[in-house]
Amino acid sequence: MVTGSQAAEKLPRIAILPSLSPDYEDVIVRGVVRRDFELTGLFDVIPDDKAPAGMYGFEDAVDVDAWRKLGAEAIVKVAARKTTGDQIQVSGLAYLMSSGKKPVFEKSLVVKKTDARVTGHRIVDALLGALTGRPGGFASELTFSGRWGKNRRIFRMDADGNGLLPFTDAKDTAIAPAFGPGNKIFYLVSRDYAPFSLAAYANQKNEAVVLPFKTSLYGVSLSRDGKQLALAVSNAGRSAIYVGNPDGSAMKSVSTTELATRPVFSPTGKLSWIGGEAKQGTQRVYLDGKAVSPPGFTAGGQTFCDTEDGVRVVYSVATGGGKQDLVMGDEKGRVIGRLTQGQGSNTHPACSPDGRLLAFFSTRGSAPGIYVMSLKSFRTQSISSQTGEGLSWAALP
Q1: Residue range(s) of every CATH 3.40.50.10070 domain in the chain
Q2: Cα–Cα distance, 99 to 84 (Å, whole number)
Q3: H/E/C letters for each residue in 356-387?
């Protein structure tokens, strides 16, 4: 029932059991899990200093009644311990107060010690599936173009902001990264003001991708199944979107606007781009040849979110004073809502693989960087102080 009350939505109260172990693997896994649950924006996580007295070892039983008294509606226990050699055992349990004292989810994995962090993310994704019915998207990575010295380089990092790594040559200018099959990262690169050409990063190697175009490229995207490659290609002062095979063959022009940049495939296989006419001077988001962003607003940086409520398109719109805000709509062009307002400039959104979180660059306050917003509670948190453009987000293989 809609009452008109301005009271904040009450989030389910959840306990992430503390750890008393000093072991590296246990500290890492537990820290990853707690941070991920906080980033979801779906729960009110009970602070560690409120934890009841008790034992919290790998094999110690969970005192369900003690946590129930603190108001916990769900309990999560994760722990890790060394087994043999470089192997560790990671355990995850989830309890729902409404289901009694037996766990509703149990998972135990034996992995390499070096995989402790990513295993923590995978455990969270499974726990979210048990608690909400929809697995999480934290076993994933982000890529973007950011300034490093005088040039732009391509970076990748984990979904929680950890593990930042530049992987393109510092002498090059690299922009517009996009994920392909197997998490191969495609991007555009130029050296000494040469035309931007296509390259790819995989298995810790950068390789040039041979294409039939000799002019500069402005954008790249691959369809979810990896069977289609889309490129924004410059031509005589204009630009057009070409689509063809992933090896660059059989490329055909498909855009219908005089200027067309930033191709992006939707989860349903539709193709979008940022288009406009030189005389009008206004950029709009086009989807399958039709404008889906409001007229009169300069739009850019579109992405797609495969949410529980359907596919949503999120893009930035210019709001004056050099600032931009994020707007969300559906594939038919209906604006659903404005996601940011009065908090600096917000650009280049990217959606998590599970459709629950939106990452974007923001200049808000005194802490510019990459922020993550829950599309369920709209709680927004910072995960990195890096700034840049061209965010893209994909699940790990």
Answers
A1: 13-132
A2: 36
A3: CEEEEEECCCCCCEEEEEECCCCCEEEEECCC
Quick check: 164 and 386 in contact, CB under 8 A? yes
Q: Is 117 helix (H, G, I), strand (E, B) or coil?
A: helix
What whole-number distance in Å separates Cα of residue 28 and Cα of residue 114? Answer: 11
Q: What is the CATH number of domain 13-132?
A: 3.40.50.10070
CB 391 within 8 A of CB 141: no
Which one-letter DSSP state was computed for residue 111?
E
Evaluate whether 361 touches 348 at the Cβ level (below 8 Å): yes
Three-class SS state of 99 = helix
Whether pTM exceeds 0.70:
yes
Q: Cα dist. 241→180, 193, 251, 302 in Å? A: 18, 22, 10, 15
Using the structure block, give the residue that is written with the tokens 């359907």: 310
* φ and ψ at residue 378, rounded to 5 degrees: 65, 15
What separation in angstroms does the CA of 72 have from each of 2, 106, 120?
26, 19, 22
* Tens-digit pLDDT profile for residues 28-85: 999 999 999 999 999 999 999 999 998 898 999 999 999 999 999 999 999 999 999 9
Where in the sequence of the chain do the CATH 2.120.10.30 domains occur? 140-395
